[in-house]
Each structure stands twice: as structure tokens, then as C-alpha cells.
UniProtKB/TrEMBL annotation:
This is Glycerol-3-phosphate dehydrogenase [NAD(P)+]. Its EC number is 1.1.1.94. It catalyses: sn-glycerol 3-phosphate + NADP(+) = dihydroxyacetone phosphate + NADPH + H(+); sn-glycerol 3-phosphate + NAD(+) = dihydroxyacetone phosphate + NADH + H(+). NCBIfam families: PRK00094.1-2, PRK00094.1-4, PRK00094.2-4. Residues 7-159 form the Glycerol-3-phosphate dehydrogenase NAD-dependent N-terminal domain. NADPH binds at S13, F14, R34, Y51, K108, A140, R255, V279, E281. Keywords: Cytoplasm, Lipid biosynthesis, Lipid metabolism, NAD, NADP, Nucleotide-binding, Oxidoreductase, Phospholipid biosynthesis, Phospholipid metabolism. Sn-glycerol 3-phosphate binds at K108, G136, K191, D244, S254, R255, N256. It is an enzyme of class 1 (oxidoreductase). Belongs to the NAD-dependent glycerol-3-phosphate dehydrogenase family. GO terms for molecular function: glycerol-3-phosphate dehydrogenase (NAD+) activity; glycerol-3-phosphate dehydrogenase (NADP+) activity; NAD binding.
Length: 341
């Protein structure tokens, strides 16, 4: 099955760049969103003024607020709404799908009930449809400007992986393949927590050694968690692991980083989210991952510290100091296990 027609569900910044790449690649693409004003702007002035201002979109990209019309003839449907709305939105069109229509999640979040990742939510709602995940260091605002970037398509279905590579690869976007759906997806969700932590670090004016320490220990912590949940640790060496972690921990374009930065400057979480006006998945992910880590007894000092800052009013400086005096630990615990140090 070649991809000739695609639907993108969601009118935010990432949904828009995915839809635009597809249109650039001459795939008939319909983007669904609930906001009629934005849909009309995409159709008439070929811009998304709310989420991607200043980016000239491909004039062939069509937008609609009619969800069933958007998905009807699509060979592949990219789901790009925030995690808290994926189940509700997908459920509202699931009964209309034909089994050959594939679903690809681009959403980097976790569903609270059952700790489900988005591909698991999609598979639960649409058990007969092929499912995949797109994740990587993909700041939408840079890709919108057609700056060079790469991503990962993860699926157990090799034909789907190849079709998505064909549909999205172009002069400014390179698509790598993975069969570790769970690891790729977990990498995308977990790194948002550490982007918030990196925002604290930047707001406190800490040095480059500190930033490097935080990013590297974040990788150790997220891969420890992922392996405990059954993912392949090698996936974290790739674009969806270290790649996405580095970009979101270093760029003020990351919304999660910006939330951490604002809190590090003394703002409340509520004000930080309100000022952002876009989704920062890491805030909820932090809550769910902390609860899971406690339940499974997984050592995650950065998660625990970030939770105290975000939800219990702890001061970032005090938490950072506390982390420096923890028990002695192994640098790479897959090489030197903790109990052998
Ligand atoms: N932006 C990025 O750089 C990247 C984002 N992602 C991931 O993609 C996902 C989507 O993010 P992104 O596009 O950035 O989000 P944005 O914050 O830019 O936009 C969110 C979009 O989702 C819509 N939406 C929110 N709730 C609902 C709902 N209940 N029903 C229908 N539509 C809804 C919003 O509509 P409205 O305007 O009407 O509220 C808006 O169009 C996230 O999980 C994110 O982590 C992945 C890679 C990169
Ligand atoms: O996932 C992203 C880049 O890969 C975007 O990160 P934010 O959601 O923090 O903006």
C-alpha cells in the first residue's frame, strides 16, 4: 500500500508541520482541527496563525473541522493532539475506519489510567488497524522553516515503516526506522520531564558542566525506567532517546523547557502554563512517572526532585544541592551494576 492520501488529526504546531511535509511530498493531505478560524486560514492564506505564525504552508494542504470527512479516504492517519484528548478524538472516528487504514501517533505523552502510551491507546480503540509512532528531535517551529531534521518511525509492521519513510522523507526531513515501538515512544514522553529540569537549571544560571551532568544523568534515569518497563536500552542511543533529550533540554523553543525556566524564575506552575498557551506534556508525565517509579521501586532522583519543585513548592537550588549528596552511584549501570560499585 503506497500512501497517496493522508489525514492529520490536530491543528497545533506539530500536526501542521507533519501535514505540510506530506503536502510538500505531493500526498493529498487533509488536516483536521476543531478551530474553524484556523482551518479557514490554512485553506485561504496557507498559514496557521495560532500555532505556526510566519510559516508559509503548502497551498495544496487542506484543512477541515469535519473529522469523519478528514479520515474517510486516508491511507494513513497521523494523530497529533495532546495526550489527554487522544482517546476521545480517536474514539469518535474509530468505527468508520477500514482495517487497512494505518494510525501513527506523534503524541509524546502518557494516559493516566493504566499508564498507557499513545500507541497502546490507539491499538486498544482500533485493534484491527496497523499502528506506529513518530518521534525524534523535532521542534515544530524549526521544521516549519524547513530546517534540516530527522525523526524515527517505529512500528512492528515493516511495510508501514517503509511507507511512512516514503511519505515523509524529503530534502529537509530524514526518517529512520525502529521496531522498538515502546522504547521510541517512552523516550519521547520521558524526555519532557528532563526538559523541565533543564529549564530550572538554565533559569538558575548554572554552568555548562551542570547542564551536561543533568542531560547525561537524565539519560541514565530514563533508560533505567524504560528497561524496567521492558524497552530496549539501545533505543535510547538513537534519535528518539538521546537525540530528543538533547534538543528539548537545550532549546528555549521547547515548551517543557520554558515551563521549567519560568518556574526557575519564581513563577507559579499555573502562570507558567497559562503564559505558554501550548501543550507541555511533561507536567502530567512527571506525575504519572513518579507514581509508577514509586510503585515499581525504580530509583529516579531527578523525577522525585522535579515533582517536589513543581507540586510541593520546593526551591530548585535546594533540590539541586540535595541531589549532589546522594548515595555513590555507577556512571553506566548497564556496564557496572549499582550493587557492584
Ligand atoms: N510542537 C512540537 O515541537 C512537537 C510536538 N510533539 C507532540 O505533538 C503533540 C501535539 O502537540 P502540538 O501540535 O505541539 O500541540 P499544540 O499545543 O501546538 O496544539 C495543540 C492542538 O491540539 C488541539 N487540541 C487540544 N485539545 C483538543 C481536543 N480535546 N480535541 C481536539 N483538538 C484538541 C488544539 O486545538 P485548539 O487550538 O482548538 O485548542 C491544538 O490544535 C504533543 O503530544 C507534543 O508532545 C511532538 C514533536 C514535536
Ligand atoms: O518534542 C519536542 C521536540 O522533539 C517538542 O518539545 P516540547 O513539547 O517541549 O516543545
Amino acid at each position: 500500500m503506497d500512501i497517496q492520501r493522508a489525514a492529520v488529526i490536530g491543528g497545533g504546531s506539530f500536526g501542521t508541520v507533519v501535514a505540510n511535509i506530506l503536502a510538500d511530498n505531493q500526498i493529498q493531505t487533509v488536516q483536521w482541527m476543531r478551530n474553524e478560524v484556523v482551518a479557514s486560514a490554512i485553506n485561504t492564506s496557507h498559514t496557521n496563525p495560532d500555532y505556526l505564525p510566519g510559516v508559509a504552508l503548502n497551498p495544496e494542504l487542506k484543512a477541515t473541522t469535519d473529522l469523519l470527512a478528514a479520515v474517510k479516504d486516508a491511507d494513513v492517519i497521523f494523530v497529533s493532539v495532546p495526550s489527554h484528548s487522544v482517546r476521545q478524538v480517536v474514539t469518535s472516528f474509530a468505527a468508520e475506519l477500514k482495517p487497512e487504514q494505518a494510525l501513527i501517533s506523534t503524541t509524546k505523552g502518557i494516559e493516566h489510567d493504566g499508564f498507557l502510551l499513545m500507541s497502546q491507546v490507539l491499538a486498544e480503540i482500533c485493534p484491527n488497524n496497523p499502528v506506529g509512532v513518530l518521534s525524534g528531535p523535532n521542534l515544530a517551529k524549526e521544521i516549519g522553516k524547513r530546517e534540516l531534521a530527522a525523526t524515527v518511525i517505529a512500528s512492528e509492521n515493516s511495510e508501514l515503516r517503509r511507507n511512512v519513510q516514503d511519505a515523509l522523507s524529503c530534502s529537509y526531513f530524514r526518517v529512520y526506522a525502529s521496531n522498538d515501538l515502546y522504547g521510541v515512544e517512552l523516550g519521547g514522553a520521558l524526555k519532557n520531564i528532563y526538559a523541565i529540569v533543564s529549564g530550572f537549571v538554565a533559569a538558575l544560571g548554572m554552568g555548562e558542566n551542570t547542564k551536561s551532568m543533568i542531560i547525561t544523568r537524565s539519560l541514565a534515569e530514563m533508560s533505567r525506567f524504560a528497561v524496567a518497563l521492558g524497552a530496549n536500552p539501545l533505543t535510547f542511543l538513537g534519535l528518539a532517546g538521546v537525540g530528543d533529550l538533547v534538543v528539548t533540554c537545550m532549546s528555549p523553543l521547547s515548551r517543557n523547557y520554558r515551563v521549567g525556566y519560568a518556574i526557575g524564575q519564581g513563577k507559579t506552575l499555573e502562570d507558567a502554563i497559562k503564559e505558554l498557551g501550548e501543550v507541555a506534556e511533561g507536567v502530567n508525565t512527571l506525575k504519572y512517572v513518579r507514581a509508577r517509579a514509586i510503585e515499581l521501586d525504580i530509583y529516579m532522583p531527578l523525577v522525585m526532585g522535579a515533582y517536589e519543585i513543581l507540586f510541593n513548592g520546593a526551591q530548585p537550588k535546594d533540590v539541586a544541592q540535595g541531589l549532589m549528596t546522594g548515595d555513590y552511584a555507577s556512571d553506566v549501570e548497564f556496564a557496572l551494576p549499582k550493587h557492584e560499585i
